[in-house]
Backbone:
C-alpha cells in the first residue's frame, strides 16, 4: 500500500534485510543434505557466494583460492591490479595513509592508466593456477576491456556500475553502450548490474544478461545513498528483481540467476537474501577480513577514488581469520561472520529447504525487533549479535 508523503507524492514501503525474519515450516532436514549449488553462465559452484570486484577484496591469489573452495572471485579491471605491474607497494600505501588523506591519495593512485597487457596477464595468471577467471569493468570501458579479457581466457565478464540500464542518454560526442549488442558480441557470458527494480531487471534479462546484480548503495564501504540519495533496501530490491527473473523464466524457459550485491555481512544476512529470491550473493567486506585478502584489513568501494565525486570510503574491517574459516569454517568468531556456508546449510536444514529453489520459497515475516529482542546482555557486553 502506498504511503502519502505529501499532497503531491506517495511512496511504497520498502524493507531492508535487518527488518525481516525467516519462518520454519512443517519439516526440518539434516544440514549435511542441504544442496547449496547454483549455476551461472554454465559454471556450477557449490557455494553461492561471489567476492566483490574490489581491490581490497580480490587479487589473483584470492580468485584462485575462492575457486578452489567452490566460490567465485571477481577481479576489478579498472583497479590497482591492472594499473601497476607490482600492486603490492600501492596497496601498502593505501593501508598506511590516514583517514583525512586517503581519498586524495587514492585519486592520485587510480589516475595511472590501465594497461591492456596487465588485464591479459592477470586473467592468465588466474587460469594458469586452475582458477575460474571472472573480471569486471564499468560500462564505458566494457567493449575495450571485455574483448581483451575474453581473448586472455576469462570465463565470466561482469559489467558493473552504480546503476545500469538499457536506455542511457549519453553526453554529446559520446556513444551509449548497446547492452544487447555487447552480450551478443562477447564470446563469454556477461553478468550485468547494478539494478533494484523489476522493470530494469527484465530489460537486462531480455538484453541477454547471464546474471543480474541487485543492490544500490547497501555496501559497507559505499556512500552512494548518502551522496546521491538513491537506492532501495535490499530485501525489497531482491524480491522485486527475482519476480522479473520468474516471469522471464515462464516466458522463455531460460533461468537466469539473480545475485544480491552488497549490505550482507553475516550468514543470516545471506540466508535472508536467498529467501527473498536471490540465487547467490556478492559480498565484499566479509571477504576483505580474510588473511589472504589484498586490502591489509581495509576495504573500499569501486567508486571511492572517483576524481570528481567519490561514492565510497575506506573502512577498517580488520583481519579475523583465513578464507577457509570465513567461507567454510570452523568458525573462530561468535557473530555470524565465519563459516558462511555452514550458516546457510544450517538455516536451510532448520527451514526444511533442500535446495536454493526451496530456500527462495520459505515464508518471510516483517520483524523489526529480530536482531534486538532479548539481546540486552550481548549488546551491553559487545558479544555475538551485540558487536
Residues:
Amino acid at each position: 500500500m502506498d504511503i502519502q508523503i505529501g499532497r503531491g507524492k506517495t511512496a511504497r514501503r520498502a524493507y531492508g534485510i535487518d527488518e525481516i525474519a525467516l519462518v520454519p515450516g512443517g519439516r526440518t532436514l539434516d544440514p549435511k543434505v542441504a544442496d547449496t549449488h547454483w549455476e551461472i553462465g554454465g559454471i556450477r559452484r557449490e557455494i553461492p557466494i561471489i567476492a566483490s570486484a574490489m581491490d581490497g577484496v580480490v587479487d589473483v591469489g584470492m580468485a584462485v583460492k575462492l575457486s578452489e573452495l567452490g566460490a567465485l572471485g571477481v577481479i576489478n579491471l579498472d583497479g590497482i591490479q591492472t594499473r601497476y605491474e607490482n600492486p603490492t607497494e600501492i596497496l601498502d600505501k593505501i593501508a598506511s595513509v590516514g583517514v583525512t588523506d586517503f581519498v586524495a591519495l587514492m585519486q592520485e593512485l587510480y589516475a595511472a592508466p590501465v594497461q591492456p597487457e596487465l588485464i591479459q596477464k592477470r586473467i592468465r595468471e588466474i587460469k594458469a593456477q586452475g582458477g575460474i577467471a571472472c573480471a569486471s569493468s564499468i560500462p564505458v570501458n566494457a567493449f575495450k576491456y571485455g574483448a581483451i579479457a575474453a581473448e586472455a581466457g576469462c570465463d565470466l565478464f561482469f559489467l558493473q556500475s552504480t546503476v545500469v540500464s538499457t536506455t542511457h542518454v549519453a553526453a554529446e560526442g559520446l556513444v551509449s553502450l548497446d547492452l544487447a549488442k555487447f552480450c551478443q558480441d562477447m564470446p563469454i557470458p556477461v553478468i550485468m548490474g547494478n539494478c533494484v527494480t523489476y522493470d530494469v531487471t527484465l530489460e537486462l534479462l531480455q538484453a541477454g544478461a547471464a546474471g543480474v546484480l541487485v543492490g544500490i548503495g547497501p555496501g559497507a564501504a559505499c556512500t552512494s545513498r548518502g551522496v546521491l540519495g538513491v537506492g532501495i533496501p535490499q530485501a525489497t530490491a531482491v524480491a522485486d528483481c527475482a519476480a522479473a527473473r520468474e516471469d522471464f523464466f515462464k516466458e522463455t524457459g531460460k533461468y537466469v540467476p539473480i545475485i544480491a550485491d552488497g549490505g550482507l555481512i553475516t550468514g543470516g544476512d545471506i540466508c535472508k537474501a536467498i529467501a527473498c529470491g536471490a540465487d547467490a550473493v556478492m559480498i565484499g567486506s566479509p571477504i576483505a577480513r580474510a588473511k589472504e585478502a589484498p586490502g591489509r584489513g581495509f576495504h573500499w568501494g569501486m567508486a571511492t577514488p572517483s576524481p570528481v565525486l567519490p561514492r565510497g570510503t575506506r573502512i577498517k574491517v580488520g583481519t579475523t581469520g583465513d578464507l577457509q574459516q570465513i567461507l567454510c569454517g570452523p568458525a573462530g568468531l561468535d557473530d555470524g561472520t565465519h563459516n558462511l556456508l555452514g550458516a546457510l546449510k544450517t538455516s536451510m536444514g532448520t527451514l526444511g529447504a533442500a535446495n536454493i529453489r526451496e530456500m527462495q520459497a520459505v515464508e518471510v515475516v516483517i520483524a523489526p525487533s529480530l536482531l534486538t529482542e532479548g539481546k540486552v546482555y550481548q549488546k551491553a557486553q559487545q558479544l555475538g549479535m551485540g558487536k
